[in-house]
């Protein structure tokens, strides 16, 4: 996972300089080759090498959102990002289920056979995708240009406000993801199969939020939907904390508010990504790379807090979800302008 964080910090800025397509093809090539290495690995060292290379290739996924920003603006961009968020939410649910079926019927190597085939298919398909970054700059001093992009992003209140808000919303999601297995499997004694359904029920809120956001954002706008998402996010955080304080190990005290929370998380993340990338068309790749890094940084922090706290009840998980929700809410106040979108662009 850490390899993905670091890799995307390079894919994004390089795609601003050299185009999305070459970097996207490179990332898929690395991912496919890494999957093949995992298939034929005979030692743990070779297997770990393959997995590290997979993470390096996976970092190119950050370019998808930059490509969306290249092609769409405003409400339309937020709508497409919302639907992409639904895919992102569904994949972690389907992936382990399919992986378990493949491993039970065949062997673990066939999981990587499937991944290699998917990578190869996407690589072939991507060759027919046109370059979307029309503002790319083939400069010998691209390292200085990348540095100027990052400096601009760290000084842009508009960008930081939305990037940090999305990051802490993601942290709220991962507080639940990291703490739920221990709570439901160890403390409550549910089976792995039952936990899979419990996890899917909570994730249902995320998927619904993504589709509802995609349907309504054209009508109500990015700002209104962002506020609605924040209302569900903070409301869900408060509710889960209150319920878990009164009923420390009641599954419904966790699941029902988490559905509400994940609905809000889905809307907040997609709208914040759209708002963060809107005013930076010349460095959308760098912006998405930094945003992705901040999201996983917040996720690591919230997961660590849940793990180190007293886990004899669901309250530490609930309070962490609430804390991340409130941080996401307060980050919105970094942004001082009242307009719908800024018109500033990256300093190239």
What does this structure look like?
The chain is mainly α. It has two domains: 2-136, Growth Hormone, Chain: A, CATH 1.20.1250.20; 145-334, MFS general substrate transporter like domains (Growth Hormone, Chain: A), CATH 1.20.1250.20. The protein has 13 helices and no strands. It has helices at 2-18, 20-39, 44-58, 63-71, 74-105, 109-126, 142-155, 157-187, 192-220, 222-246, 251-277, 284-308, 315-331. The protein is globular. Residues 337-348 have low confidence and may be disordered.
Rg over C-alpha atoms, rounded to the nearest angstrom: 20 Å
Tell me the number of structural domains. Answer: 2
- In DSSP terms (H or I, runs of 4 or more residues), the helix count works out at 13
Going by CATH, the homologous superfamily of the largest domain would be: MFS general substrate transporter like domains
Q: Mean pLDDT, rounded to whole units? A: 83
How helical, in percent, are the residues? over 70%
CATH architecture field of the largest domain: Up-down Bundle
Termini, distance in Å?
31 Å
Unreliable stretches, pLDDT < 50, 5 or more residues?
337-348
């Amino acid at each position: 996972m850490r390899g993905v964080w670091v890799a995307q910090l390079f894919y994004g800025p390089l795609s601003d300089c050299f185009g999305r397509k070459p970097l996207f093809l490179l990332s898929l090539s690395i991912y496919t080759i890494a999957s093949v290495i995992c298939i034929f690995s005979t030692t743990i060292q070779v297997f770990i090498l393959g997995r590290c290379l997979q993470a390096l290739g996976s970092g190119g996924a950050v370019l998808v959102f930059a490509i969306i920003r290249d092609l769409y603006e405003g409400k339309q961009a937020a709508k497409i990002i919302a639907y992409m968020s639904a895919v992102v939410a569904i994949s972690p649910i389907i992936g382990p289920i399919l992986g378990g079926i493949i491993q039970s019927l065949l062997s673990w190597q066939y999981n990587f056979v499937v991944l290699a085939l998917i990578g190869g298919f996407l690589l072939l398909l991507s060759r027919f995708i046109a370059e979307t970054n029309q503002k790319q700059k083939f400069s010998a001093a691209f390292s200085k240009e990348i540095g100027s992009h990052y400096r601009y992003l760290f000084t842009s209140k508009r960008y930081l406000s939305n990037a940090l808000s999305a990051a802490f919303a993601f942290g709220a999601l991962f507080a639940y993801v990291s703490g739920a297995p221990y709570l439901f499997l160890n403390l409550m004694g549910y089976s792995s199969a039952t936990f899979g359904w419990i996890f899917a029920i909570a994730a249902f809120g995320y998927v619904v939020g993504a589709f509802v956001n995609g349907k309504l954002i054209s009508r109500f706008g990015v700002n209104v939907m962002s506020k609605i998402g924040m209302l569900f996010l903070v409301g869900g955080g408060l509710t889960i904390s209150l319920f878990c304080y009164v009923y420390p190990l009641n599954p419904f005290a966790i699941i029902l508010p988490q559905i509400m929370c994940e609905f809000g998380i889905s809307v907040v993340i997609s709208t914040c990504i759209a708002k963060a990338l809107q005013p930076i068309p010349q460095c959308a790749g760098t912006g998405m790379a930094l945003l992705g890094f901040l999201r996983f940084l917040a996720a690591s922090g919230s997961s660590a807090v849940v793990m180190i706290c007293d886990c004899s009840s669901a309250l530490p998980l609930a309070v962490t979800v609430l804390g991340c929700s409130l941080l996401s809410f307060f980050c919105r106040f970094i942004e001082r302008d009242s307009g719908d979108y800024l018109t500033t662009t990256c300093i190239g």
